[in-house]
Design goal:
heterodimer, A: about 300 residues, alpha+beta, Cyclophilin, 2 domains, B: about 350 residues, mainly alpha, 2 strands
Amino acid sequence: MKTLALPALLALAFVAAASAEPRVAEERIVLRTGAGDLVLALYPDVAPRTVAQLLKLTRMGVFDSTHFYRVDPSFLVQLSDAANRTVPLSPEQRAAITPLPLELSAPKHVRGALTMAHRDGEPDSAETSFSILLVDAPHLDGSYTVFGRLESGWEVLDEILRVPRSQKHRPVVKIEVKRAEVVNGAKLAEASLAPATVVPVPEAFLRAAMAAEAAEAARRYIPPAIAGGILLMIALDLFCWFYLEKLSQRVVAACLLLSVLTGAFLCVVILTPSAHESPLLAIFLFAGLLGTIRLMGRLE
Amino acid sequence: MKKLYFVNAFVDYGVIGGVSIAAWALLAGFHSGERTETVYGLAAALLWVCNWPHFSATSYRLYHSAENIRQYPMTALGVPAIVLAAVAGALASPEVLAPYFVKVFAIWSPYHFSGQTVGLCLLYARRAGVRFEALERLALSGFVFGTFLTATVRAETSPSGTTYYGIAYPGMGLPGWTVTVVEIWTGLCALGLLAAAVRISRARGGPLPPIVLLPAAAQYVWFVSGSGVASFAEFVPFFHSAQYLLIAWSMQLKERLDREGLSPSESYVLGESLRWGGMNIAGGAALFWLFPRVVAWCGFPLEFATGIAIAGVQIHHFFVDGVIWKLRSPAVSSPLMSNLDELLGREREAQAA
């Protein structure tokens, strides 16, 4: 019986150790952003050097005016490197930033985890850029330092996610960390945390983002739509062919012109996204469309 | 000189371009230039009584008699079928076809304005007994279409495009230098047009009536000078519609008078104006208010359905207008030589006296 009990106890202890949350530091980091405040809980026992460094840099104001430069709803929200913040770093701040070694331990890359970014293939190159995971990412386990979790501010992240983004997950407006502060956990209630706020996006950016989305969608869904247009052209041409002898020349000419218009429209649909990279194609398309419109004046 | 105007100098100058130029001067000089609530409210009210009825007037002109439908069978029957197919395609494919359907409409619309402007200049020239030579005609068309191209090419240099009823459509990404080319072309044509005005004035032994070139000047204000004044841009379709309604109204009165052998009189003008105007207001509401709601009732969001339905109705209008208003045809140009005094019977009274 004793021989069975020991492995069982060890296994239970292992499971408990693996699932239990690591000790959370007294201090929290509060990121005061344009979308509201995010509270980060830190794991000093899991990643002592990373946590110590981040607390120190926060107190020195290194994270002030950094921004979320990568927002990928299916993956993470990533803070920019402090070297890329809006206000240039002071010499003292720059000197305080040193590369951090990879600190591997039990906490997994799960939703809400805070994980340090580093250069590809250089695990000991983490400095100031880190991410908040929006989904579980087990493929990152063993490669990146998990140093805490998002304690509060999910609704703030929702607002950040609402800001339109480029195809490379760059928000169209800068979502800045106005100020980062170290706050004692017991005094969080007194820290007057800002609730989630809508990030204002200028109409021009919204339009650009919507147009980019439309262009991207066009690339993905062209075949069925184009097929419909081609069918229409075929129908018009077949109509002319079948009734060639019964129709007047004027009606045949009109049918052919409508077929030309349909073809020109399909060209615009297919080629406009490519025209953005080729000025000559853009001129050709625009002139072709105007010429087609002009032709329609001769319909009858 | 009496027949130069459809109504009289005051009304014709106002409707054909004077009011729009004055509105631009006022809005650019004394207004923030933004689309304020007052601007939106006024523009929305004008939709019901002017913009929408002008589309309906075109449809009425084409479809009110079987003879017209027989004369233009493809425009009357084939085009609506094609446009309806395109509307259905755009509704079924909101991400691919819809943006480009709206884009074609957005480019065709100012092109269509330009066609009307050239037509008005030529119409008033004919009424003034003036004839443009071939090169002068080219200068006129070049200038008018140049103003449309200036605005359109500028918009098309941005690949990001814009939105229409929430439907985002991309620009073509034309290179920036194309704007300069079009501006130079427009400037050269303007010089040619001035030279034509001088030549005609000398030949007539007096100045060219300004109303002959007023539509072209108004269009320059619409698309070039006024393009940066958002509040003014909101009213440009109204100014275009008002021009159209003046001509179409005069045409309707004269055609019916001749066709039915009626006597010109004040009661005829008043009664026919009310009947025709009322019908077009109702028709406009059906096309632009009811039709989008019917489309939305089929399961599409109202804003999206409205954008597509309105684009479809307008494309149909561009087709029809391009066919039924050919000044070369005597059936069109002859009734367009009438004026209100003739329709009221005053001219005959004056001759009798």
